[in-house]
Amino acid sequence: MASRRRDESGSIGAALGWAALIAGLLALLTIVAALAFSVTVKGQSMEPTVREGDRLLVKFWDRGTIKRFDLVEARVGVAKTPVVKRVIGLPGDTVSIRFDRGAPVVAVTPAGSETAQYVVNPTWEGQIGDRVAPCCEDDGTAGTQFHEVVVPDGKYWLLGDNWGSSDDSRTYGFVPGADIGGHLNLRLRPLGSFGSIENPATLADQP
């Protein structure tokens, strides 16, 4: 009888040990996968929303459902440089930027609406840099004067929240959907800031 109890205790202990090992391996695989499918923010172009060194999870599995104001990882320019930006213009939208006392007024007329023009709110405060040219040229880049332009089918118009220090669609033009890797709505690092990334952007009526 005592021998049977020892055998049962040993079996339970072994099962618990295997369960702990499997749980540990799954946790390790989760961490490795999260790091593998993540991007580290470089530069100041998305302050104050995310900052240099923040590590963000790339939700590549829902890249086909890009919405206005999503944070995304995109590859831009001839070198396909990875960047973190915010989606402002969707395919078919009409977009433009004018400046009011040095601050940008980013205007959007959603696709299918001929007259309902809105401005992107908020205009983030405390911006740095000198990216203050009006927009846009036909390819979505900044130009020498205010001009409205329509976002082509299959492409997106991306901006950095820190508009004064951001190389974005004003530099690289419209970004094909195929060059957008996925959504970025979860901060992995630093651990003290782990969690969902707030999205304060909205469309507001023209002042």
From TrEMBL:
Naturally occurring in which organism (per UniProt): Nocardioides cavernaquae
Q: What is this protein called?
A: Signal peptidase I
- Molecular functions per Gene Ontology: serine-type endopeptidase activity; signal peptidase activity
Identify the main location. Answer: membrane
Q: Which Pfam families match?
A: Peptidase_S26
Span-the-membrane segments of this chain are 12-37
Q: Which InterPro entries match?
A: LexA/Signal_pep-like_sf (IPR036286), Mito_IMP1_subunit (IPR052064), Pept_S26A_signal_pept_1 (IPR000223), Pept_S26A_signal_pept_1_Lys-AS (IPR019757), Peptidase_S26 (IPR019533)
Recorded family membership? Belongs to the peptidase S26 family. IMP1 subfamily.
Query: What PROSITE patterns does the record point to?
Result: SPASE_I_2
* Annotated active site: S45, K85
Give the catalytic activity: Cleavage of hydrophobic, N-terminal signal or leader sequences from secreted and periplasmic proteins
Per its UniProt record, what SUPFAM superfamilies does this chain match?
A: LexA/Signal peptidase
Assigned keywords, A-Z: Hydrolase, Membrane, Protease, Transmembrane, Transmembrane helix
| EC number(s) from the headed UniProt entry | 3.4.21.89
Q: Where in the cell is it found?
A: Cell membrane; Membrane
